[in-house]
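The protein record filed below.
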Amino acid sequence: MRAHPAAVALFSICIALVGCGTSTIATPPAGQNTGGGFNPQGSDVSKSDTGQAADAGTSDSRATAGADTAANVDSGGTSTPDTSTAPDTAVTDTATAKDSGSDPIDAGPMDAGAADAGPEDAGTPDTGPSCVKTKPPTEVCDGVDNDCDGKTDDVSCDDKIACTTESCLGKAGCVFKVLDTACDDGDPCTTDDKCAKTGCVGQLKVCDDKNDCTNDSCKKGFGCLFSDVSGPCDDGKTCTTNDTCSGGKCSGKAKVCNDGNACTTDACDDKAGCTAKPLKDGAVCIGGTCQGGTCKKPVCTGGQLGGSYTVGPGGKWATINAAISALKTSGVCAKTTVTVLAGTYKESQGFRFPVITGASNTKRVHFRAAPGATVKLVGNTGTSSYNGTIKIDSNAVGLTIEGFEIDGKEPNNKVRSSYSGPVVFGSSGGHKHITLSNLYIHDFGPTAWKTYTYLGAIYMQQSNTVTDIEIRGCRIHNINPPNSFHTQGGISTRNGRHNGFRIIGNRISGVRKMDLINLRNGNGWTDVVIANNQLIVDDGKFAALEWYGSNTLKTNAVFAHNSVVLASGGKVIRGSLSGNKQDVRNNLVYALGSATFIQSTPVNTYGGNCLHGISAPNGAVAKPPDVKAKPVFKSGAPNWDLHLQPTSPCLNGAPLMNAVRFDIDGDKRNNPADIGMDEIK
């Protein structure tokens, strides 16, 4: 069987272009025309050559029997079947001529019926020259499609280090660049963390709380630890000594500054250290008084006393009455202070202070409880009038009694007669320059009185003139006789003429069946000042102040800067006056129940009061205007403390008064001043 001329030509082209290898042309099945023309004996399943370049595919092995294996030129006729029975001999197709005709070239069995794959069809899909399959396929950054998915280096170069940027550079592999930036390595024991090649790296943290009383360390994953230590330290303060660590803090004991001079006040300043400030001239020192910061002992003749003495264990006298007796006998030539040490002092006839020769306003005899000590006085068994635990004889001059306590629960402090009380003045008067200061008189209930007429916790009745009497800073509490009487009070006076009478800064409460202050039948009052008192009226039938009977004012009386509570009604001021009038100013009044500010008492000036639950007196014109508001106290019933709180509407509500320039605590008042007894600092 001869080769078809077109096949020979096509094969020659293949060899010339790509060096085709030999191929065997298979014989087609009987009745099937492998050419491009119409085969009348069967379907033409071959596809015609579209005139493209020579097939670079596999060589065509030709069949030797059956059908016509040649690719005839299709001329519109029918192909002639090969009727030869002899086997055809396979011939190697060496044709090189290109198909230039317009008729298709029958590809024959060489193409196996498939479409021509293109100009240089190699028969297998091209996956690229670098594809090398692995088991299992894993893609890496190396410029090769390792997993043969048609994509090269489709893999991440992430080194899991936040401090680097990553990129894949093909055959160069993964490239990592360290960032020049701060970072956080997550370790609380490092600081100044910065990116490095190995990751985020920091410097070891130095834990230092600047406290010598702690041991400093750092625990990984936790941070700085500070544990307390003990031992000596230095708190950096000049005014402490023996500093030691305790509870993580350095502290020491206050340095005691003492220059050994009784006439100086010693203190410690953080900058200057120990300092000494001279006391005012006339201050008491041992055996004398201070002058220019030095203790000067008085030069007395004839055995007179003067200076400072002590009563109690180790003192000059063992008892108070022994000191009183010595002073009465010897007299004084200078200011004399008798300090009584802590304890309870009992005298069957009480403590009677006589006229002391040489005593005057400038050479006072001053009996006082030791600062900070509790000194109780017990003794009043007398049954005659004008008796008391403390009695000040008529015509006594230049006397101060300070800081003692008189307890009505003591059986021997019972009041057994009229015209008497725990503290009583002699009936003839003549007293001059007498001060009762910081006395505590309390719990004189119904059984502490044998009578109920002409009484007072402090009672003064005289027929003559008294001068310069001051009751200051006393605490009078729970005074309750068995029955009421019209002329008695916590502080009570009767008859006489008073030149200079001051009731300043006292606290009076729990008084029943009597007024808190009762002033009766004074036939001439001059320079009366009632100021800075805390007055709690617990019995609504009585008043804080009553002018009882016939009283004549030679100068205007001052009732100012008092704080008054009418706990169950009552009056602030009542009674009649002749002559001059009262100045009622800058008082704080807090009323519960039916209450009256002023009843029947004439008023000179009025205004600047702070009122709650009570109205101004009828016809009074407040200048400056009253403040009508609820005050805010430190505490209320039953333990009233009428100090003001910073939120009180009674602050800065009144002009400063020259007569009351300080408050109940000795604090200097502002201008405008707070209303009532207290001035907030």
